[in-house]
């Protein structure tokens, strides 16, 4: 594990972990081979968390080092800023410092508040529609928060997929024949193509009576690979997924079902791109996604998604965030191993290069961006939509964006030719207009919520409405 240049104070996270595992301070101190008083001082942030104890905690509780940083608190603060921008809170303004203190020291209370606000917002929407509607899709958010807490990496499952790959007889890098041979030898299942699969909205189906795995006839090779890996995960590693969910997963039955789907996809990605081999290739190619996808015979999206999971204790890759959006700005997937947090309420910022990618299909767009917490990221965006098969086919327009901190940018090929010291190249982006505090942005579509508007007649800016300065 690389040495950290700054001391890691992780008192609230350490205390949260101990309470979650039902351990006393004495018991945890014993596991870490430190004194009770030393642990007590760490939990009160009077002492930093040493690297040796950090490694021990990660190995003992299957966590990544980033779990102990302030990344999750940064995401929570962003959510609080968005919620408190609602005009309903205009008479109770909270400073950024107070929100940060709340997110760090009272995380459960903050989550309860955010849950309550979501219920309130849904009720307002239901009343506006003047009809009964189904409850909001809280299970998706529950699973998303659970995955985020683990930095999109589940050690046991990732290791199992890597071990499976190493035991396969993969000749000349051709993984698909090896997976097909395994499914036939182990489960007696043959691969067959079905011309009706796409019309029925299916990407694979097991016909147990005829001992066949049915796949669409026009499925791309990389999609076939992923499907076969998914099937192996379901047939052979379902007990492991059940243990992970039972031990630390969500409690709601719908959320558990979605968590199982996520773990199945995670296993498939880890099987196609085994951690050690993938990380070595990423570092050798300077994270060149196109070179990596050709090397492993997978898609641009599959490589990008896998890059957001590289948080194995002691073997961490660059901490990326990964988002997948459609052309309307709907977020289809969102994972982050760093501080980046997308808007939870409202659409994403139009200055983000992921939207520019739709104007240049298939081409990589690189951008330096600065979020409202002053963090600067290197963003790589590209469309990943499939081409239409017929004149009447209307494939969904999809793009992805992968981002890392500016300090990690020189490790990637995408920083080549960029002057990372030139602040004029950095594009300021926000969490969506409603919560964005940048008053002078010419792309603003509506005023920031929760602040008094200055509509005086003595001056008129680029944006016809300006907000009075935020109270500190």
From TrEMBL:
<dbReference type="Pfam" id="PF09856">
    <property type="entry name" value="ScfRs"/>
</dbReference>
<keyword id="KW-0804">Transcription</keyword>
<dbReference type="InterPro" id="IPR010982">
    <property type="entry name" value="Lambda_DNA-bd_dom_sf"/>
</dbReference>
<dbReference type="InterPro" id="IPR050807">
    <property type="entry name" value="TransReg_Diox_bact_type"/>
</dbReference>
<keyword id="KW-0238">DNA-binding</keyword>
<keyword id="KW-0805">Transcription regulation</keyword>
<dbReference type="Pfam" id="PF13560">
    <property type="entry name" value="HTH_31"/>
</dbReference>
<dbReference type="InterPro" id="IPR026281">
    <property type="entry name" value="HTH_RamB"/>
</dbReference>
<dbReference type="GO" id="GO:0003677">
    <property type="term" value="F:DNA binding"/>
</dbReference>
<dbReference type="Pfam" id="PF06114">
    <property type="entry name" value="Peptidase_M78"/>
</dbReference>
<dbReference type="InterPro" id="IPR010359">
    <property type="entry name" value="IrrE_HExxH"/>
</dbReference>
<dbReference type="GO" id="GO:0005829">
    <property type="term" value="C:cytosol"/>
</dbReference>
<dbReference type="GO" id="GO:0003700">
    <property type="term" value="F:DNA-binding transcription factor activity"/>
</dbReference>
<protein>
    <submittedName>
        <fullName>DUF2083 domain-containing protein</fullName>
    </submittedName>
</protein>
<dbReference type="InterPro" id="IPR018653">
    <property type="entry name" value="ScfR_C"/>
</dbReference>
<dbReference type="InterPro" id="IPR001387">
    <property type="entry name" value="Cro/C1-type_HTH"/>
</dbReference>
<comment type="similarity">
    <text>Belongs to the short-chain fatty acyl-CoA assimilation regulator (ScfR) family.</text>
</comment>
<feature type="domain" description="HTH cro/C1-type">
    <location>
        <begin position="14"/>
        <end position="68"/>
    </location>
</feature>
